[in-house]
Structures are given as structure tokens and as C-alpha cells.
Design brief:
By secondary structure, the protein is an alpha+beta fold. It has helices at about 30-40, 90-100, 115-120, 150-155, 180-195, 220-225, 255-270, 285-290; strands spanning about 1-5, 20-25, 45, 55, 60-65, 75, 80-85, 135-140, 145-150, 165-175, 230-235, 235-240, 245-250, 280-285. The two termini are about 30 Å apart. Bound molecules: flavin-adenine dinucleotide (FAD).
Length: about 300
Amino acid sequence: MWESDVQLAALTRYRIGGKAHRYGRFGTPADLARALRSLDRSPYRVLGCGANVLVSDRGVPESVISLAGEFDYLVVSETGIVAGGAAGLPALVGEARRWGKSGWDFLEAVPGSVGGGLRMNAGSVDSGLWDRVEWVETMTPEGERVRLTPAEASPSYRHVDVADDWVFLGGRFEALPGDPGTVNAVHARRRRLKVESQVYELPSCGSIWKNPGPPHGSAWEVVDRAGMRGAEKGGARIAERHANFIVNVGNARASDVLSLMAETRRRVHDEEGIWLEPEIRLWGFDAGDLASVGAVQ
Ligand SMILES: Cc1cc2nc3c(=O)[nH]c(=O)nc-3n(C[C@H](O)[C@H](O)[C@H](O)COP(=O)(O)OP(=O)(O)OC[C@H]3O[C@@H](n4cnc5c(N)ncnc54)[C@H](O)[C@@H]3O)c2cc1C
């Protein structure tokens, strides 16, 4: 069912952004296929939990769709986990831990949905969700269901080679039995490290920039060296605790976040001769705004 003029700020972790002129939540594959076909190839975007999206103050001109209902499921078996695109990543990781499955701690304390996690190949520096995928199911803009393996999707760091308008409906993930005590301890350690080093108490989108890699190091280090830690614009601030987070300290506008990003990028280029690339997805911005932060979307 489509709705008109839906405020996206309320549907994103950032609590920032204007309206979607058309928004729909779909709870079954049949409903989703019908909705996609009704768009007749006009552009649309897929919104998960909005933990990695900055929506412009003007909102987005495209239709926006979300998954709900039958897409929110998790089933754990002896050797695998089957999860729907609307299931939460925290629920997936929590079940893996509860069942003593090894190899899932890398996703501890990562907010979002399974669909968003597949699109972003969410994870840590050294592992991504696609490392655990056996297969995923997608839906094309024509409403066809297509199953993909990792070899067909070519995942890489925060990226997967699947067309942006294909919807991830869910998938089957490897989950091998581990020693429950060890699994619990490893998860607890990872969670503690993340909660201590990142910012969870204020709205954000997580890490703003992709890590530039050697010899420059992590994105937070280059932002720090460029003197931007703690910089503020309107209601947005580069977090003191983690210089790759821009937090909403109260009524931030998307333009505040964008302006901090553009200044950071310029300063990092002046200091180190590299151009940072955004990890977050930017919706509803014009080409000039996107160019100012190096977004190729
Ligand atoms: C405090 C905090 C900490 C974070 N830490 C990490 C971290 O450690 N590692 C990490 O990788 N990320 C991290 N993130 C970012 C975020 O958690 C991940 O990117 C997550 O995968 C986003 O999922 P989502 O459902 O919120 O996606 P959204 O933000 O809603 O969307 C992100 C992208 O995925 C697409 N998408 C969403 N659902 C679907 C679908 N079903 N089918 C196709 N495309 C879809 C969207 O169109 C968009 O392009 C963090 C974020 C926060 C706020």
C-alpha cells in the first residue's frame, strides 16, 4: 500500500531529512512484485532501518519501499541460518550467539536490517556479511525472483555487484556450531570494544567515510590529523570519541552534515593528497552536493 508525503527523518537513524513523495511497506513477495511492476521502471529506492542513509532536507523525488511482514523471519538450523530481508542484523547476530554458532561476532553492535546489510556488505574491517552467505534471494524491478551466490554477486569492502534497484529479500547464511562459552565471550568482547569506541547514544549513520587504507590508515585517523575532530556545523558534530562519526546533537539538517563532510574532505586532501569516499548513502541531493563530498551515486 502506497502512502504520500511520508517523513523520512522518522524512518532513519539520523532523524534527518525531508519527505518521500511516495512510500510503501510491503509484507509479501506478491505484494512487492505488484508494487514494483506498478512503478513501471520509474526510479525507486529501498529503505531498510535507515542506519546508513542521509536523506536531504528536500526529501527524495523517487518512490521509497521497505520490507515488512513475511520478510521479517529468522530460522536457525544445525548448519545454517535463513533470514528475511526485514529481519534485524542484531537479531541475526543475537540468534547466532544464542545457538552457539561461530563466526558471527564481527557483526556485533551493527544496527540495520539483513537487506541493508547485504547491500552494504556490512561488517568489520576484515569481514563482511557476504562472507557468511550461501545464497541470497533478490527481486528485480520487473518483480522476478532471482537467487544469487557470492560468486555471482562479487562482494567487496562495503560493496556488492548487484544492481541498485534489485531488492534483497533474504538468504541463507553459514552458521557452524562452536563452543557456546567461547562464542559468548568473543561476542561480548567485540560488543564492548565497539560500544566503547563508537557512538551509540546520539543519532548517526555510523562511519561516514570508507577507510582509505595503507599508508593512510583508518578514516577516523585521517579526519583527526586534518584537525576536524569535534568540528561543528548547526546541529551536526564530528564526534570526539570517533572522528569518522558525524552525530546529530539536536535538530541537525542534512545540509549541516554535508557541509562538515565537504570541509573534512577538502582538508584531508590538503593534508594528505587523498580524496575520501563516503561510506554512507546520500539520497535526494543534487549533483553539485554529491560532488562536494565525492559521492558517485
Ligand atoms: C551506531 C552505528 C554503528 C554502525 N557500525 C557499523 C559497522 O560496524 N559496520 C558496518 O558495516 N556498518 C555499520 N553501520 C552502518 C549500518 O549499520 C549498516 O550499513 C547496515 O547494513 C545498514 O542497514 P539498514 O537496514 O539500516 O540499511 P539502510 O541504511 O536503510 O540502507 C543502506 C543501503 O542499503 C540499501 N538497502 C536497504 N535494504 C535493502 C534491501 N532489502 N534490498 C536492497 N537494498 C537495500 C539502501 O537502498 C541503501 O543503499 C553503523 C551504523 C550506526 C548508526
